[in-house]
């Protein structure tokens, strides 16, 4: 289905309605405005896809603007990570912008508001101001500083700018309406004093603008036509428009703010503050830990940009917040990796098997198809010998008829190799099986065309030749939280639901050709799942991350 034939979401309807009402199409401009105080997460992916998708749909420019107004929490590392993630997802911005580019213009406009009697300096404590704010049903009280003269406000604001005051002692507030039903309109703070070095402006400024003052004016400076944000900013729209009213020139494009629902993901959190806690408390190793729902973490785990874009398209744009089952995200990456990932064999919990009637010292190289879903993927050679590993769970001494793997007296096929029959097994002093002795049918080699090779047996196992096995560190990941919605419990902290078994590190035994695998390469360990080469890999030791298992659990969601 082409983009033009897809049904429009309500955001696209807003744009279409504006165009129908004679808004010039050439004036369309969108933006993605992240704050560089952490890494982007899967929730941001929806916003990225929305804004850049609109840019592609209408052939309109999209700005990447960093709302960098809080130097206490912002770092260049986060700026670089955000740019890397947006590009990796497959999008390209028109211009790279920063709210800090507009600090002087914002300050000049603030001076203008002071001169117009629409802003004033307040030196009350935050507790005093909070007490005067009122409640949603009771009006607030005016600050005793609200009627300061223009001259006094200008002098105090200048002192704030020069750094004459300590942090928390003076703020600039907009003079709007302390009895407004919208509490955000009750003389909101525009500037606060911060003696912090900014990652771009260093110590040039001792005052920093608040988000509400900065965001809409930045949209206006950039001539953004449509400013889309999540539902928690719906109440901010009135303030967004009030600030624009103060500086708007009718000859220019006036930005329009509209809101869409946040998409939360089950068994995780998508608050940057809470994600930062996970990093700072050592629950995870970094912002790009493969257990994290950050885009960088998903990339490191083996997710593809296509799978994340498909996920955002599937969940769509809505007007109500919703909890999305993480299984849908897993379905998307499984679906895409099934098409592109080469098949290889790796044993993660090894059990030794010996073919007693296979010549000692002999080995052969068998043909193995790389990907049955891709005719162009070709094939590779896999070494076979007398001794090899299978998974422990693939053998039982005795089993019922529904067990189609290896059991005493029964046959299975080895993938790309021969049919074998379990004859006996050896146990250690604790009764654990440590070796299985088998015989094989020499004429049953896969693809040989013999009558024996066409014989049907119900079970097919993956395996790795012991002589040729490549050792690798394999990191098995599970859900980061045991609870579906860990941060919605009023009486419990989300950290109480951290899964202590979210990471298991084991040694895997793999096909030898994987020694040439590169960081970021994705493969399917047959019958085990999809894996990706981690950035911790070296020439001496490969490290694989488990991306997702083979089982499609999305069907359970569909049934619901």
Automatic annotation (TrEMBL):
* tRNA synthetases class I (E and Q) anti-codon binding domain ranges (all copies): 460-534
What segment(s) does the record annotate as region Disordered? Answer: 125-147
Q: What is its EC number?
A: 6.1.1.18
An example GO CC term for this entry is: cytosol
Recorded GO MF terms: ATP binding; glutamine-tRNA ligase activity
User: What superkingdom does the record give?
Assistant: Bacteria
Name of the top EC class for this enzyme? ligase
Residue stretches making up the Glutamyl/glutaminyl-tRNA synthetase class Ib anti-codon binding domain: 341-441
Set out the biological process GO terms recorded for this chain's protein. Answer: glutaminyl-tRNA aminoacylation
Domain Glutamyl/glutaminyl-tRNA synthetase class Ib catalytic, residue spans? 28-338
Keywords on record: Aminoacyl-tRNA synthetase, ATP-binding, Cytoplasm, Ligase, Nucleotide-binding, Protein biosynthesis
Under the heading InterPro entries, the entry gives: aa-tRNA-synth_I_CS, Gln-tRNA-synth, Gln/Glu-tRNA_Ligase, Glu/Gln-tRNA-synth_Ib_cat-dom, Glu/Gln-tRNA-synth_Ib_codon-bd, Glu_tRNA_lig_a-bdl, Rbsml_bL25/Gln-tRNA_synth_N, Ribosomal_bL25/Gln-tRNA_synth
- Please name the Pfam families in this protein's record: tRNA-synt_1c, tRNA-synt_1c_C, tRNA-synt_1c_C2
Q: Which family is this protein grouped under?
A: Belongs to the class-I aminoacyl-tRNA synthetase family.
Protein name (database record): Glutamine--tRNA ligase
């Amino acid at each position: 289905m082409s983009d033009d034939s897809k049904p429009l979401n309500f955001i696209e309807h807003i744009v279409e309605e504006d165009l129908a009402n004679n808004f010039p199409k050439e004036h369309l401009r969108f933006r993605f405005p992240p704050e560089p105080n952490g890494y982007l997460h899967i929730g941001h992916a929806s916003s990225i896809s929305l804004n850049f998708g609109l840019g592609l749909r209408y052939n309109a420019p999209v700005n990447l603007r960093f709302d960098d107004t809080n130097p206490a929490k912002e770092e260049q590392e986060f700026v670089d990570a955000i740019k890397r993630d947006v590009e990796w997802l497959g999008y390209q911005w028109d211009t790279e912008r920063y709210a800090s580019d507009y600090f002087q213009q914002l300050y000049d406009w603030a001076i203008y508001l002071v001169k117009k009697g629409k802003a004033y300096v307040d030196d009350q404590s935050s507790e005093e101001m909070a007490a005067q704010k009122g409640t949603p049903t009771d009006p607030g009280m005016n600050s005793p500083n609200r009627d300061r003269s223009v001259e006094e406000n200008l002098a105090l604001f200048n002192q704030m700018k020069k750094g004459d005051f300590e942090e928390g002692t003076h703020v600039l507030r907009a003079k709007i309406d302390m009895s407004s039903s919208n509490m955000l309109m009750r003389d909101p703070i525009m500037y606060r004093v911060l003696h912090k070095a900014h990652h771009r402006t260093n110590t040039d400024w001792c005052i920093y603008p608040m988000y509400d003052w900065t965001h809409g004016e930045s949209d206006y400076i950039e001539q953004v036509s449509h400013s889309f944000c999540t539902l928690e900013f719906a109440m901010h729209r009135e303030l967004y428009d009030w600030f624009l009213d103060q500086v708007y020139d009718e000859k220019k494009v006036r930005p329009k703010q509209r809101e869409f629902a946040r998409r939360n993901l089950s068994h995780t959190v998508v608050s940057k503050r809470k994600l930062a806690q996970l990093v700072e408390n050592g629950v995870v190793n970094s912002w790009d830990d493969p257990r994290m729902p950050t885009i960088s973490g998903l990339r490191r785990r083996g997710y593809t940009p296509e799978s994340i874009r498909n996920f955002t398209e599937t969940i769509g744009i809505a007007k109500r917040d919703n909890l999305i089952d993480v299984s849908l995200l897993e379905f998307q990456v499984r679906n895409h990796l099934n098409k592109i990932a080469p098949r290889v064999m790796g044993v993660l919990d090894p059990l030794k098997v010996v073919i007693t009637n296979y010549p000692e010292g002999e080995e052969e190289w068998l043909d193995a198809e790389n990907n049955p879903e891709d005719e162009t993927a070709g094939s590779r050679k896999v070494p076979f010998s007398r001794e090899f590993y299978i998974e422990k769970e693939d053998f039982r001494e005795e089993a019922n008829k529904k067990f189609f793997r290896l059991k005493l007296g029964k046959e299975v096929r080895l993938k790309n190799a021969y049919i074998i029959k379990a004859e006996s097994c050896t146990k250690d002093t604790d009764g654990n099986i440590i070796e299985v002795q088998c015989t094989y049918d020499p004429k049953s080699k896969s693809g040989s065309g013999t009558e024996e090779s066409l014989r049907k047996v119900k079970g097919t196992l993956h395996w790795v030749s012991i002589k040729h096995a490549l050792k690798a560190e394999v990191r098995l990941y599970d859900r980061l939280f045991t609870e579906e919605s860990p941060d919605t419990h009023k009486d419990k902290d989300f950290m109480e639901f951290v899964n202590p078994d979210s990471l298991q590190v084991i040694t895997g035994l793999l096909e030898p050709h994987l020694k040439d695998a590169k960081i970021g390469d994705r493969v399917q360990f047959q019958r085990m799942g999809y894996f990706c080469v981690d950035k911790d890999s070296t020439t001496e030791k490969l490290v694989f991350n488990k991306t997702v298992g083979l089982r499609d659990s999305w069907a359970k969601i569909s049934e619901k």
